[in-house]
Structures are given as structure tokens and as C-alpha cells.
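pinned: reference chain
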Amino acid sequence: MLETPQFDRPADSRILDFLAKITPYELFAAPTIYQVSPPPDEVYPSKETSKILDSAAKIMKERKDSYLAVDALILAVLGASDVGTALQEAGVPKMQLEDAVKEVRLRVL
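pinned: its C-alpha cells
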């Protein structure tokens, strides 16, 4: 069984402080969904989603993995600008999260 990575308490309290500042409106705000009639034949991912998938694929190739693993996706998401900004605002060291993901991968392999 895998152990949950332990983070220092100050980072944990900073996360809770950040989450406490989120208003209910921000938390439950849904994106606008437009109805298109007839629906399109194909749907494409957003530009940011494409960047994340490209980054994850690059990580996969660097590791010489056969499949796109969840940890590669997590690392790619951590590299996204919105996520990086949110981590900075919360006072969470991005490197610490990246190290935890890498540590879990080493334990699994």
C-alpha cells in the first residue's frame, strides 16, 4: 500500500487559508454552456487543455513510457499557468508537490 506524502503543517494551513477565502460564487460558478443546433460534428479541447496534454505527452516520451500515466498528467497540470498561480497564492511550494508525485512514481515502479 502506498503511503500518502506528508507536507509540512505551514503549507497545509496556507492551503486552508486560501480555500477559506474562496467565495461561494467562485466555488459554484459554472462555465457558460451555449446550445448549438445542430450540435457540431467534432469537439476540440481548449488551448490550455491542449498545452497540458502536449506537456504530458512530452513527459511520457522523456520517461520512455508506453502509456500516458496519471502522474505525467499531474505534473503537466502543475506546470499550467492557472495552477501555478493558485499554488503561489496558497503558499504551496510547487517543487514539493512535484517531488511528491515523483516519489510516488518511484515507489510504484
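why pinned: The mean pLDDT is 78. The chain has one domain: 9-108.
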